[in-house]
Design goal:
globular; Fungal lipase-type domain-containing protein; three-stranded antiparallel beta sheet; Rossmann fold; 2 domains; alpha/beta; Fungal_lipase-type; 20% strand; AB_hydrolase_fold; eight-stranded mixed beta sheet
């Protein structure tokens, strides 16, 4: 056990040294070679030119079993009604109790399209001292159209830390003003020393990224007390936002299933306005069916050409299946345990 601990600390130290070397290399105006692990290597197939992609091990440990037994039911609980949300907890996490269900109009203001809504839940586990914010995924074709069209329209400043897509910003603000602000302030008052777990799938994943960042910027919670885990997250903000997020949260994991198409949109380089959009760390990539025991990659780059970005063939089916579970209808069934 002692030798294992020493080895773990040594590997962490070496990884930190490598990341610092990469950052120093880029700050000097050179490129870092991911293949040779050298600065300005004359022969290099995979060059790193942005600090956000300097190889770095995460500062927290990803737990596959915890993701299956706790985080997965949180995805399902946000995608259904309050009664079934609590059943999701009863079936998987009995000490977790639903606190609030929030449903708001988050439509594009266009008079042509029908109204669409955004939803989320908060929950509390007084035994394990955990608060939850879980955001619902895209739930209609119209809402998906709004999101896609918004990628070519506008972005909004996220406090002093870059820009995020307007749709995600406006949807989150609608939830914040629609009851989330009062709810989180009340929970903070009642449970000042609790951890906050923030999560979501698809659109909910983008809102989780924004939500965790927002409650830090609002001064409600410290980042070291927050855990973020998302699934199938689209690119949410620009380089500055992503760099701020990954430098702020030690525990932040983006789960990507094999060929899931959504984490690849919008593109890093947009033809319309030439903004470069990036994911923040840390991607956990399952290049398989995500059944129990499946291997996964803890990706060293934030949004480089390794891990899921290697894929050219992309899949919607992989987007709706995480941890070997079909997320369509999972919450409405009360998040049944896998056999």
């Amino acid at each position: 056990m002692h030798k294992f601990l020493v080895l773990t600390l040594l590997l962490s130290f070496l990884a930190a040294c490598q990341a610092t070397y990469c950052e120093d290399c880029l700050n000097s105006g050179n490129h870092y070679c991911a293949d040779t692990k050298l600065c300005n290597s004359p022969v290099c197939l995979n060059s790193i030119t942005h600090i956000i992609n300097c190889p770095r091990a995460p500062n927290a440990t990803y737990d596959d079993n915890e993701a299956r037994t706790k985080w997965l039911p949180l995805f399902g609980a946000s995608a259904t009604n309050p009664t079934m949300a609590q059943k999701c907890f009863d079936n998987n996490w009995p000490t977790m109790k639903l606190s609030k269900y929030i449903l708001v109009n988050c439509s594009d203001p266009s008079p042509i399209l029908p109204l669409t809504t955004c939803a989320m839940i908060t929950a509390v586990d007084t035994t394990q001292k955990i608060l939850v914010m879980s955001f619902r995924a895209t739930n209609t074709g119209t809402q998906l159209e709004e999101e896609i069209l918004n990628y070519f329209v506008a972005k909004k400043a996220f406090f002093d830390s870059g820009y995020i897509f307007e749709f995600f910003y406006d949807a989150y603000v609608a939830l914040w003003n629609g009851g989330l602000s009062a709810e989180m302030r009340n929970l903070k008052y009642k449970y000042p020393d609790y951890e906050v777990w923030v999560t979501g799938h698809s659109l909910g994943a983008a809102l989780a990224s924004v939500g965790a960042s927002w409650i830090v910027k609002a001064g409600l919670f410290k980042p070291e007390h927050i855990k973020v885990l998302t699934a199938g997250q689209p690119r949410t903000g620009d380089y500055a936002y992503s760099l701020w997020h990954q430098n702020t949260f030690a525990y932040s994991f983006r789960i990507v299933h094999a060929h899931d198409i959504v984490p690849h949109v919008p593109f890093q380089y947009e033809l319309v306005d030439h903004d470069k959009m990036y994911h923040h760390r840390t991607e956990i990539w399952y290049n398989n069916d995500m059944s129990v025991g499946s291997p996964y990659h803890v990706c060293q780059e934030a949004d480089g050409f390794y891990c899921s970005n290697q894929n050219a063939d992309l899949s919607w089916n992989d987007h709706t299946h995480y941890y070997n579970t079909d997320l369509d209808g999972y919450g409405n069934k009360g998040c049944p345990k896998a056999n």
